[in-house]
Amino acid sequence: MATIDPPKLPEALTMEYVHHLLMVYAVYILGTASPGPSNMTIMAVAMQYGRRPALTLAAGVMTGSLSWAALAATGLSAVLATYADALLAIKICGGLYLLYLAWKSGRSAWLAKEKAAIKAPHASLYRRGLFMHLSNPKAVMSWLAVMSLGLQPNSPAFILPAILAGCAMLGTAIFGGYALLFSTAPMVRIYTKARRWIEGSLACLFSYAGLRLLLSRG
Length: 218
Fold this sequence. Notes:
By secondary structure, this protein is mostly helical. The protein has one domain (37-215). It has helices spanning 11-33, 37-49, 51-74, 76-82, 84-109, 113-116, 122-134, 137-150, 159-181, 185-193, 195-215. Helix 1 runs antiparallel to helix 8 and helix 2 packs across helix 10 (185-193).
């Protein structure tokens, strides 16, 4: 019995979609690798607690990112973005959580070194990374932008899985890379010498990000 091969895209059209995917990946890399609360927290945890705790935190951040990606892929985040009350609630939760992290970092900056060296539970670090990303409305908008850029009318079926799988691998590499890089011996020595300055800087960063989120109108 003769089999019917599935229709194939013209080579020129396939290359056009490949170039489009590369543009999507570039936008995602720029947004993910740029300095922000999540990346700065991964760096600080890596220097303070070591590689495994930092990777645990990074896994929580990545889980939050993929959660928003799944919502964006199904269109639910677009619906969420149209409801001002829901988005406002996320902004308030995110802003308050960032201010809470600012308080923790500021408190840690004044603790004795012996107390600061206490190991943080991995489950707590995972939840911290997860909630940090889930309570960030910018993550919703970022994934909406990625999906809007990547999913064009009449896009072939492979585009959506390629966006999700590619961005998942890139995000894991970026967040995990920060965890690995900043848990190296030279970085740990830097943290040991400048712990209060680093924690104080994080407190200022979280305070700024939290207040900006709470006071923003958009």
